[in-house]
Amino acid sequence: MAMKANSTDGRTRSSIQIFIVVGLCCFFYILGAWQRSGFGKGDGIAMEITKGGADCNIVPNLNFETHHGGEAGSVDESESKLKVFEPCDPRHTDYTPCQDQMRAMTFPRENMIYRERHCPPEQEKLHCLIPAPKGYVTPFPWPKSRDYVPFANAPYKSLTVEKAVQNWIQYEGNVFRFPGGGTQFPHGADKYIDQLASVIPIENGTVRTALDTGCGVASWGAYLLSRDVIAMSFAPRDSHEAQVQFALERGVPAVIGVLGTIKLPYPSRAFDMAHCSRCLIPWGANDGIYLMEVDRVLRPGGYWVLSGPPINWKNNYKAWQRPKEELQEEQRRIEETAKLLCWEKKYEKGEIAIWRKRLNAYSCPGRQDDSQATFCKSVEGDDVWYKKMEPCITPYPDVSSPDEVAGGEIKSFPERVYSVPPRITSGSIPGVSVETYQEENSKWKKHVNAYKRINKLIDSGRYRNIMDMNAGLGGFAAALVSPKLWVMNVVPTIAEKNTLGVIYERGLIGIYHDWCEAFSTYPRTYDLIHAHGVFHLYKDKCNAEDILLEMDRILRPEGAVIFRDEVDVLIKVKKIVGGMRWDTKMVDHEDGPLVPEKILIAVKQYWVAGGNYTSTQ
Q: What class of enzyme is it (predicted)?
């Protein structure tokens, strides 16, 4: 394996070649010591982990050759010529295929349709490697990354001017600094969250999962993390260039998204709290359809926070430069829809209002007879991928008493991570019993322990943003729960079982996605990607090359990938990524070489736009 050091900040770096002959442990030892962090300095975290020297015998029970009865040797050598993928043109550095700005402008602006996902047709897909910008460095470790982002990683200064008064972001030399402010909390997110916590049980683990609509640079979600609340933040790719990119560079969960005409890619009853801080969503418009969608994804007993217009319009209409009649009507419609949804208003002070969703349908006597209350006919409230929102109310699950929580009561965090989720105890996931769930947890603890023996950096804080491409019941993420990292649990839309609701009931976060399309994120936003059975699942569904190119797009330089799949699948994957500037190593299953399932470890090499490469697209 060879690694090349690049000149990223004007200083000349010598090319080095490292030959690893003692196994994968040394591979990660050298990688950890060499990785870049903040302005080209050696990665302090990795150095701390490895400063005692490389223990290259930590996995003596694993044979690093494939040992699969000759399957690898049966590959037809005549077809084994490596296909090399060239770098894309540097103008594609921040390319987001399904939220491309030029393509977006060809769609209607009504109801934000043009900001929704519009993926390229086959003939317009890029079959090249998205380059990192010149000078790109590894982000700072958490929690420093919450407050500082290297300028070279997202070189966009417009928000520093546009949001200067609101303390969103400041440019200081060669870094962006995030003071923790927002449009509705210029004095800092912590004080703002304290105010919410006077009404919402944020501190005791009752509220764990949150949704931030129109999140900006996600400071609300960033400051909730210290209180063990994890927010799924989203914002469109719009004139506020790179807001979601900034969030992910800070190490905060976020995706590109918009509340337009399509249902949100989350299951029903997912979030303990939802939040809008001057998010510009017209909550009173379109017969209350946007609030009805929030109601769908909000857990019974969950909270909705609205901060900013039209709340307290009487005192602010002049400052907002909007007619008071318009604001008054907007608030009237919001209050009317909230009443229809049977939400209870718990608080209104200044520009903040908080509602709470009732625990069950018993709390809403007479709503079934209300002529204005239209209930959704779809039996499956979690069937949302590219499905249009409807102006209807998602029914509560049935309960047997007025005190019962519809859908089942959930333990407080962190106990809820391993307690049996209500969707499993109720038998809502076909083929998954309590015993199956517990067996899955044990299996993934074992798998993750094996991963940690292979790659000691997993526990070091080096990998902050982690993705599980085929999350199942969330066992991988549960085994990794730590303040040092978070996991985006992806449930493929073609998965046999719809398990994303279980993942949220465990106090984890995730999203639905079809891996035949690009993910709703910027390039270089994940440090570690876990792909269990992904290529087996998508066999004959779409091109494996396209999936791997998308993984390369969203993976940071020097980020790692763990593939777990059948050996014949991994041989094909290994061959493709050999032309993508990834270094790889095949590892046996932790139970030994006779198990047909193997592990393929990959690390993306460091390279940037403007190197000695020929771009083709």
A: transferase
Please give the Cα distance from 606 to 445 (Å, whole number).
31
Q: What is the CA radius of gyration of the chain?
A: 25
Rounded distance, CA 187 to CA 195, Å? 12
> What are 485's two structure tokens?
């990292």
HEC sequence for 218-245: CHHHHHHHHHCCEEEEEECCCCCCCHHH
Enumerate residues 6+ apart whose C-beta is below 8 A from 414. 205, 228, 481, 507
C-beta separation of 217 from 243 below 8 A = yes
- Residue 26, C-beta contacts closer than 8 angstroms, at least 6 positions apart: 20, 54, 56
pTM across the whole model: 0.89
Strands 41-42 and 36-37: antiparallel
Strands lying side by side in the sheet with 148-150: 148-150, 175-177, 170-172
Which tokens hold the place of 340? Answer: 């229809």
Coil vs helix vs strand at 306: strand
Torsion from C-alpha of 520, 522, 525, 531, nearest 10 degrees: 40
Partner residues linked to 585 by β-bridges: 601
Q: Which residues of 19-28 are buried (b: 16+ CB within 10 A; e: fewer)?
A: ebeebbbbbb
The residues facing 148 across adjacent strands are: 177
Q: CA 250, CA 407: separation in Å to the nearest integer?
A: 34
Total residue length of the chain: 617
Beta 597-604 vs 582-588: how paired, if at all? antiparallel
In angstroms, the CA 158 to CA 167 distance is: 13
In whole angstroms, what is the distance from residue 561 CA to residue 552 CA? 10
Which of these, 308, 230, 122, 259, lies nearest to 510 by C-alpha position?
Answer: 230
- 322 alpha-carbon distance from chain centroid: 36
Q: For the chain (length 617 residues), average pLDDT per consecutive 10?
A: 37 31 42 43 34 36 29 39 94 96 94 97 96 95 95 80 63 88 78 96 96 90 97 86 90 97 98 95 94 98 96 89 93 95 95 96 78 79 93 94 96 98 96 97 98 94 97 98 98 97 98 98 98 96 97 98 97 96 96 96 95 51
